[in-house]
Amino acid sequence: MGYGLGSILEPVRNFGFRKLEDFHLSRATGIDFTKHVVHCESALKPGACYDVEYDRLVIGVGSLSNTYNTPGVAEHAFFLKEVGDARKIRNKILSNFELATQPTVSQAESDRLLHIVIVGGGPTGVEFGAEVYDFVEQDVARLYKGKKDSVRVTLVESNKILGSFDKRLQKFAEKQIQSRRGFTLARDLVTGVYEDHVVLKTGGKLPCGLVVWSTGLAPREFVRDMDIPKNPRGQILTNRSLQVQGDPTGQSYALGDCADIVDMPLPCTAQVAERQGRYLALLLNNRTSEEFKFFSAGMLAYIGGYQGLTDLPQGKLQGFPSWFLWRSAYLTQLGSWRLRMQVPVDWTKTLLFGRDISRLE
What we know:
Blueprint: E1 26-32, E2 37-42, E3 49-53, E4 57-59, E5 64-65, H1 73-76, E6 78-79, H2 83-100, H3 107-113, E7 115-119, H4 123-143, E8 152-156, H5 167-178, E9 183-186, E10 190-193, E11 197-200, E12 205-207, E13 210-213, E14 217-218, H6 221-224, E15 236-238, E16 252-254, E17 259-261, H7 270-284, E18 299-304, E19 307-312, E20 315-319, H8 320-332, H9 337-353
Protein backbone atom coordinates (compact mmCIF):
# COMPACT_ATOMS: atom_id res chain seq x y z
CA MET A 1 0.00 0.00 0.00
CA GLY A 2 3.04 2.29 -0.37
CA TYR A 3 2.12 3.31 -3.92
CA GLY A 4 -0.88 3.53 -6.20
CA LEU A 5 -1.72 0.92 -8.82
CA GLY A 6 -1.35 3.59 -11.50
CA SER A 7 2.31 3.87 -10.55
CA ILE A 8 3.13 0.25 -11.38
CA LEU A 9 0.81 -0.42 -14.33
CA GLU A 10 1.55 0.55 -17.92
CA PRO A 11 -1.08 0.25 -20.68
CA VAL A 12 -0.11 -2.32 -23.31
CA ARG A 13 -0.64 0.17 -26.12
CA ASN A 14 2.10 2.39 -24.66
CA PHE A 15 4.59 -0.32 -25.63
CA GLY A 16 3.95 0.11 -29.33
CA PHE A 17 0.80 -1.98 -29.84
CA ARG A 18 -1.07 0.93 -31.40
CA LYS A 19 -2.49 -0.48 -34.61
CA LEU A 20 -6.04 -1.76 -34.21
CA GLU A 21 -4.97 -5.33 -34.98
CA ASP A 22 -1.94 -5.24 -32.66
CA PHE A 23 -3.81 -5.74 -29.39
CA HIS A 24 -7.10 -7.42 -28.47
CA LEU A 25 -8.65 -7.03 -25.01
CA SER A 26 -10.05 -10.54 -25.23
CA ARG A 27 -9.79 -13.99 -23.72
CA ALA A 28 -8.18 -16.81 -25.67
CA THR A 29 -10.48 -19.83 -25.47
CA GLY A 30 -8.60 -22.32 -27.64
CA ILE A 31 -5.98 -22.90 -30.32
CA ASP A 32 -6.11 -24.76 -33.62
CA PHE A 33 -2.42 -25.50 -34.20
CA THR A 34 -3.03 -27.01 -37.65
CA LYS A 35 -4.98 -24.02 -39.00
CA HIS A 36 -2.84 -21.43 -37.15
CA VAL A 37 -5.85 -19.90 -35.44
CA VAL A 38 -6.51 -18.65 -31.89
CA HIS A 39 -10.16 -18.70 -30.82
CA CYS A 40 -11.06 -15.58 -28.82
CA GLU A 41 -13.92 -14.08 -26.84
CA SER A 42 -14.17 -10.36 -26.14
CA ALA A 43 -13.44 -9.39 -22.53
CA LEU A 44 -15.74 -6.39 -22.96
CA LYS A 45 -18.64 -8.09 -24.75
CA PRO A 46 -19.15 -11.66 -23.47
CA GLY A 47 -20.35 -14.00 -26.18
CA ALA A 48 -18.68 -12.03 -28.97
CA CYS A 49 -16.33 -14.69 -30.35
CA TYR A 50 -13.91 -14.50 -33.25
CA ASP A 51 -10.69 -16.04 -34.56
CA VAL A 52 -7.22 -14.52 -34.92
CA GLU A 53 -4.84 -16.05 -37.44
CA TYR A 54 -1.14 -16.25 -36.67
CA ASP A 55 2.16 -17.03 -38.34
CA ARG A 56 3.93 -17.74 -35.06
CA LEU A 57 2.35 -18.08 -31.66
CA VAL A 58 3.75 -17.46 -28.17
CA ILE A 59 1.80 -18.84 -25.20
CA GLY A 60 2.56 -17.07 -21.93
CA VAL A 61 -0.66 -17.19 -19.92
CA GLY A 62 0.94 -17.80 -16.53
CA SER A 63 -0.77 -19.93 -13.91
CA LEU A 64 -3.25 -19.98 -11.05
CA SER A 65 -2.71 -20.55 -7.34
CA ASN A 66 -2.98 -24.24 -6.47
CA THR A 67 -5.71 -24.87 -3.91
CA TYR A 68 -4.82 -28.59 -3.63
CA ASN A 69 -8.59 -29.18 -3.49
CA THR A 70 -8.64 -27.77 0.03
CA PRO A 71 -12.28 -27.18 1.06
CA GLY A 72 -13.32 -23.54 1.16
CA VAL A 73 -10.24 -22.00 -0.44
CA ALA A 74 -11.92 -20.90 -3.67
CA GLU A 75 -14.88 -19.45 -1.75
CA HIS A 76 -13.19 -17.72 1.19
CA ALA A 77 -9.46 -17.18 0.53
CA PHE A 78 -7.80 -14.34 -1.35
CA PHE A 79 -5.03 -14.94 -3.87
CA LEU A 80 -1.99 -12.92 -4.98
CA LYS A 81 -1.83 -13.47 -8.73
CA GLU A 82 -3.54 -10.52 -10.43
CA VAL A 83 -3.80 -6.77 -9.95
CA GLY A 84 -7.46 -7.24 -9.06
CA ASP A 85 -6.43 -9.59 -6.24
CA ALA A 86 -4.27 -6.87 -4.66
CA ARG A 87 -7.16 -4.41 -4.76
CA LYS A 88 -9.55 -6.92 -3.15
CA ILE A 89 -7.07 -7.66 -0.36
CA ARG A 90 -6.47 -3.97 0.26
CA ASN A 91 -10.19 -3.28 0.54
CA LYS A 92 -10.74 -6.28 2.81
CA ILE A 93 -7.98 -5.21 5.21
CA LEU A 94 -9.27 -1.64 5.39
CA SER A 95 -12.89 -2.79 5.80
CA ASN A 96 -11.88 -5.12 8.63
CA PHE A 97 -10.07 -2.31 10.45
CA GLU A 98 -13.04 0.02 10.09
CA LEU A 99 -15.49 -2.65 11.27
CA ALA A 100 -13.26 -3.57 14.21
CA THR A 101 -13.53 0.00 15.55
CA GLN A 102 -17.34 0.13 15.57
CA PRO A 103 -19.08 0.07 18.99
CA THR A 104 -21.42 -2.81 18.12
CA VAL A 105 -18.47 -5.18 17.51
CA SER A 106 -17.35 -7.29 20.48
CA GLN A 107 -13.72 -7.56 21.51
CA ALA A 108 -13.60 -11.19 20.37
CA GLU A 109 -15.02 -10.27 16.96
CA SER A 110 -12.62 -7.33 16.68
CA ASP A 111 -9.67 -9.62 17.41
CA ARG A 112 -10.88 -12.05 14.75
CA LEU A 113 -11.24 -9.31 12.13
CA LEU A 114 -7.68 -8.14 12.78
CA HIS A 115 -6.15 -11.62 12.48
CA ILE A 116 -4.62 -12.28 9.05
CA VAL A 117 -3.65 -15.83 8.06
CA ILE A 118 -1.13 -16.25 5.24
CA VAL A 119 -0.89 -19.76 3.80
CA GLY A 120 2.46 -20.43 2.13
CA GLY A 121 5.96 -19.41 3.18
CA GLY A 122 7.46 -18.68 -0.22
CA PRO A 123 8.62 -15.21 -1.31
CA THR A 124 5.08 -14.07 -2.14
CA GLY A 125 3.64 -15.02 1.25
CA VAL A 126 6.61 -13.68 3.20
CA GLU A 127 6.68 -10.37 1.31
CA PHE A 128 2.93 -9.90 1.79
CA GLY A 129 3.46 -10.44 5.52
CA ALA A 130 6.27 -7.89 5.37
CA GLU A 131 3.97 -5.26 3.88
CA VAL A 132 1.35 -5.96 6.55
CA TYR A 133 4.02 -5.55 9.24
CA ASP A 134 5.11 -2.20 7.81
CA PHE A 135 1.49 -1.03 7.61
CA VAL A 136 0.92 -1.96 11.25
CA GLU A 137 4.14 -0.35 12.47
CA GLN A 138 3.94 2.82 10.41
CA ASP A 139 0.23 3.56 10.01
CA VAL A 140 -2.09 1.58 12.28
CA ALA A 141 -1.03 3.36 15.47
CA ARG A 142 -1.67 6.70 13.75
CA LEU A 143 -4.92 5.82 12.00
CA TYR A 144 -6.55 3.25 14.30
CA LYS A 145 -5.56 4.26 17.82
CA GLY A 146 -5.69 1.41 20.30
CA LYS A 147 -5.79 -1.32 17.64
CA LYS A 148 -2.10 -1.82 16.91
CA ASP A 149 -1.64 -4.45 19.64
CA SER A 150 -4.74 -6.32 18.44
CA VAL A 151 -3.33 -7.08 14.99
CA ARG A 152 -2.09 -10.64 14.53
CA VAL A 153 -0.54 -12.32 11.52
CA THR A 154 -0.04 -16.09 11.26
CA LEU A 155 2.14 -17.50 8.48
CA VAL A 156 1.31 -21.17 7.92
CA GLU A 157 4.03 -23.24 6.21
CA SER A 158 4.64 -26.96 6.62
CA ASN A 159 8.29 -26.71 5.58
CA LYS A 160 10.97 -24.03 5.82
CA ILE A 161 9.97 -20.53 4.79
CA LEU A 162 11.78 -19.17 1.73
CA GLY A 163 12.91 -22.69 0.91
CA SER A 164 14.82 -21.64 -2.22
CA PHE A 165 17.09 -19.28 -0.25
CA ASP A 166 20.37 -20.02 1.52
CA LYS A 167 19.83 -21.65 4.94
CA ARG A 168 21.54 -18.79 6.78
CA LEU A 169 19.17 -16.31 5.16
CA GLN A 170 16.19 -18.54 6.00
CA LYS A 171 17.18 -18.53 9.66
CA PHE A 172 17.62 -14.75 9.64
CA ALA A 173 14.13 -14.31 8.16
CA GLU A 174 12.57 -16.70 10.69
CA LYS A 175 14.26 -14.92 13.58
CA GLN A 176 13.08 -11.52 12.38
CA ILE A 177 9.49 -12.64 11.84
CA GLN A 178 9.21 -14.52 15.15
CA SER A 179 10.55 -11.52 17.08
CA ARG A 180 7.67 -9.30 15.96
CA ARG A 181 4.72 -8.70 18.24
CA GLY A 182 1.62 -10.43 16.94
CA PHE A 183 3.45 -12.44 14.25
CA THR A 184 3.50 -16.24 14.41
CA LEU A 185 5.06 -18.96 12.24
CA ALA A 186 2.94 -22.13 12.26
CA ARG A 187 4.54 -25.38 11.02
CA ASP A 188 1.33 -26.89 9.80
CA LEU A 189 -1.04 -27.48 6.89
CA VAL A 190 -4.40 -25.84 6.31
CA THR A 191 -7.10 -28.47 5.71
CA GLY A 192 -10.11 -26.18 5.49
CA VAL A 193 -10.94 -22.50 4.99
CA TYR A 194 -14.21 -21.06 6.27
CA GLU A 195 -15.79 -17.62 6.37
CA ASP A 196 -14.43 -16.81 9.82
CA HIS A 197 -11.65 -19.34 10.49
CA VAL A 198 -9.21 -21.89 9.10
CA VAL A 199 -8.65 -25.46 10.28
CA LEU A 200 -5.15 -26.91 10.62
CA LYS A 201 -4.03 -30.49 10.04
CA THR A 202 -2.96 -30.78 13.67
CA GLY A 203 -6.54 -30.03 14.69
CA GLY A 204 -6.14 -26.38 15.55
CA LYS A 205 -8.63 -23.71 14.59
CA LEU A 206 -7.63 -20.12 13.81
CA PRO A 207 -10.40 -17.49 13.86
CA CYS A 208 -9.46 -14.81 11.31
CA GLY A 209 -10.76 -11.98 9.20
CA LEU A 210 -8.62 -12.57 6.11
CA VAL A 211 -6.95 -15.60 4.53
CA VAL A 212 -4.34 -15.04 1.83
CA TRP A 213 -3.51 -18.21 -0.13
CA SER A 214 -0.03 -18.34 -1.63
CA THR A 215 0.92 -21.99 -2.14
CA GLY A 216 1.99 -23.63 -5.37
CA LEU A 217 0.87 -23.20 -8.97
CA ALA A 218 -1.85 -24.79 -11.07
CA PRO A 219 -2.53 -24.53 -14.82
CA ARG A 220 -5.20 -22.24 -16.19
CA GLU A 221 -8.27 -23.77 -17.81
CA PHE A 222 -6.99 -22.57 -21.20
CA VAL A 223 -3.88 -24.75 -20.81
CA ARG A 224 -5.71 -27.68 -19.22
CA ASP A 225 -8.00 -27.91 -22.24
CA MET A 226 -5.16 -28.11 -24.78
CA ASP A 227 -4.67 -31.54 -26.33
CA ILE A 228 -0.87 -31.41 -26.31
CA PRO A 229 1.83 -33.06 -24.16
CA LYS A 230 2.10 -31.71 -20.61
CA ASN A 231 4.06 -32.61 -17.50
CA PRO A 232 2.37 -34.04 -14.37
CA ARG A 233 1.79 -30.49 -13.09
CA GLY A 234 -0.15 -29.59 -16.23
CA GLN A 235 2.52 -27.38 -17.80
CA ILE A 236 3.05 -27.35 -21.57
CA LEU A 237 6.14 -29.31 -22.59
CA THR A 238 8.64 -27.54 -24.86
CA ASN A 239 12.08 -28.21 -26.28
CA ARG A 240 15.08 -26.02 -25.48
CA SER A 241 14.09 -23.59 -28.20
CA LEU A 242 10.78 -23.18 -26.32
CA GLN A 243 8.82 -24.81 -29.17
CA VAL A 244 5.62 -26.53 -28.05
CA GLN A 245 5.75 -30.30 -28.25
CA GLY A 246 2.78 -31.73 -30.08
CA ASP A 247 2.43 -28.84 -32.52
CA PRO A 248 2.98 -30.44 -35.95
CA THR A 249 3.85 -27.09 -37.54
CA GLY A 250 6.60 -26.15 -35.07
CA GLN A 251 5.41 -22.54 -35.13
CA SER A 252 4.20 -22.21 -31.53
CA TYR A 253 6.22 -21.45 -28.40
CA ALA A 254 5.48 -21.36 -24.67
CA LEU A 255 7.22 -19.66 -21.78
CA GLY A 256 6.83 -18.71 -18.14
CA ASP A 257 4.81 -20.53 -15.48
CA CYS A 258 2.60 -22.32 -18.02
CA ALA A 259 5.54 -24.10 -19.69
CA ASP A 260 8.21 -26.65 -18.82
CA ILE A 261 11.36 -27.34 -20.84
CA VAL A 262 11.94 -31.09 -21.17
CA ASP A 263 14.96 -32.22 -19.10
CA MET A 264 15.60 -28.64 -17.99
CA PRO A 265 13.57 -27.95 -14.83
CA LEU A 266 13.47 -24.26 -13.92
CA PRO A 267 11.82 -22.37 -11.05
CA CYS A 268 8.54 -20.62 -11.80
CA THR A 269 9.83 -17.09 -11.26
CA ALA A 270 9.57 -13.77 -13.05
CA GLN A 271 13.31 -13.91 -13.66
CA VAL A 272 13.00 -17.10 -15.72
CA ALA A 273 10.02 -15.80 -17.71
CA GLU A 274 11.78 -12.51 -18.42
CA ARG A 275 14.89 -14.29 -19.70
CA GLN A 276 12.76 -16.58 -21.86
CA GLY A 277 10.97 -13.57 -23.31
CA ARG A 278 14.24 -11.90 -24.25
CA TYR A 279 15.54 -15.12 -25.78
CA LEU A 280 12.38 -15.67 -27.80
CA ALA A 281 12.48 -12.10 -29.13
CA LEU A 282 15.99 -12.78 -30.47
CA LEU A 283 14.99 -16.16 -31.88
CA LEU A 284 11.91 -14.90 -33.71
CA ASN A 285 13.88 -12.01 -35.18
CA ASN A 286 16.55 -14.43 -36.45
CA ARG A 287 19.18 -12.92 -34.17
CA THR A 288 20.08 -16.23 -32.54
CA SER A 289 19.90 -19.91 -33.42
CA GLU A 290 21.12 -21.22 -30.06
CA GLU A 291 19.01 -23.09 -27.54
CA PHE A 292 17.78 -21.32 -24.41
CA LYS A 293 20.18 -21.26 -21.48
CA PHE A 294 19.44 -19.97 -18.01
CA PHE A 295 21.88 -18.69 -15.42
CA SER A 296 20.31 -17.41 -12.22
CA ALA A 297 21.18 -13.84 -11.30
CA GLY A 298 20.18 -14.61 -7.71
CA MET A 299 17.15 -13.91 -5.53
CA LEU A 300 15.92 -10.99 -3.47
CA ALA A 301 13.19 -10.81 -0.85
CA TYR A 302 11.79 -8.24 1.55
CA ILE A 303 10.84 -9.31 5.07
CA GLY A 304 9.62 -6.00 6.51
CA GLY A 305 11.09 -3.37 8.81
CA TYR A 306 13.59 -2.27 6.15
CA GLN A 307 15.15 -5.73 6.29
CA GLY A 308 15.89 -7.72 3.14
CA LEU A 309 17.55 -10.89 1.89
CA THR A 310 19.97 -11.12 -1.02
CA ASP A 311 21.05 -14.53 -2.33
CA LEU A 312 23.44 -14.02 -5.24
CA PRO A 313 26.04 -16.29 -6.84
CA GLN A 314 28.61 -13.71 -5.73
CA GLY A 315 27.54 -13.80 -2.08
CA LYS A 316 24.79 -13.45 0.53
CA LEU A 317 23.51 -10.30 2.21
CA GLN A 318 20.88 -9.54 4.83
CA GLY A 319 19.43 -6.61 6.72
CA PHE A 320 19.15 -2.97 5.69
CA PRO A 321 21.76 -3.05 2.88
CA SER A 322 19.85 -5.94 1.32
CA TRP A 323 16.57 -3.99 1.57
CA PHE A 324 18.19 -1.07 -0.28
CA LEU A 325 19.46 -3.43 -2.98
CA TRP A 326 16.03 -5.10 -3.24
CA ARG A 327 14.24 -1.79 -3.69
CA SER A 328 16.78 -0.49 -6.20
CA ALA A 329 16.76 -3.70 -8.26
CA TYR A 330 12.99 -3.83 -8.60
CA LEU A 331 12.81 -0.14 -9.45
CA THR A 332 14.94 -0.84 -12.53
CA GLN A 333 12.57 -3.64 -13.57
CA LEU A 334 9.54 -1.37 -13.96
CA GLY A 335 8.29 -1.28 -17.51
CA SER A 336 8.82 2.37 -18.42
CA TRP A 337 10.60 5.55 -17.38
CA ARG A 338 7.24 7.00 -16.37
CA LEU A 339 6.86 4.28 -13.75
CA ARG A 340 10.48 4.56 -12.62
CA MET A 341 9.87 8.24 -11.93
CA GLN A 342 6.42 7.83 -10.39
CA VAL A 343 7.21 5.06 -7.87
CA PRO A 344 9.94 7.03 -5.99
CA VAL A 345 7.49 9.95 -5.77
CA ASP A 346 4.93 7.63 -4.17
CA TRP A 347 7.55 6.24 -1.79
CA THR A 348 8.41 9.78 -0.70
CA LYS A 349 4.75 10.70 -0.19
CA THR A 350 4.24 7.57 1.92
CA LEU A 351 7.32 8.34 4.01
CA LEU A 352 6.15 11.90 4.67
CA PHE A 353 2.38 11.50 4.94
CA GLY A 354 1.74 7.78 5.48
CA ARG A 355 -0.11 5.32 3.30
CA ASP A 356 -3.24 6.19 1.37
CA ILE A 357 -6.05 4.17 2.97
CA SER A 358 -8.77 5.09 0.49
CA ARG A 359 -10.97 2.12 -0.35
CA LEU A 360 -11.13 1.59 -4.12
CA GLU A 361 -14.09 -0.50 -5.21
